[in-house]
Input
Amino acid sequence: MRLVFVLGLFACGARPADPSGIDWRTVSIEWSYGPCPADGRSCHQLVRVDRAGNVLTEESPALVKKSVLDASEKARLEVVLASPGFRSGMKDGFPCKESQDARIVIAFDGLAREVLTCVRGEGTNAPKTLVELLQKFRFVSPQP
Output
């Protein structure tokens, strides 16, 4: 009987449950500051990761790079995104003060949170862990 039910679900187009226990499409981190320097260095970067581990990096002006998370990075990402601290922080806000000169914004599940002071603060927290994990994808252009 169970086999018929499972086959019925697939026949109707339902997805099997995600093994991580959470359902998500993309997570992104945006770094920005200004005014932009006149020497051509970028003052805006965006890293977007989808469920499959595909990474798209966009850096102003108009530079784009595609990458893929390795298996351990993908597993660590899933742990952060499933953590109660991350989920509640995205829903209710993280205890971060807003910054006036620079921003780090995490977008997830249709919500966006500015987290610069959490990332630069003492201790470990979900935004800092996520930013540290994806930091290596931040720039398209070589950095000094």
Summary: The beta strands are 26-33, 44-50, 54-59, 63-68, 102-108, 111-114. The longest strand covers residues 26-33.
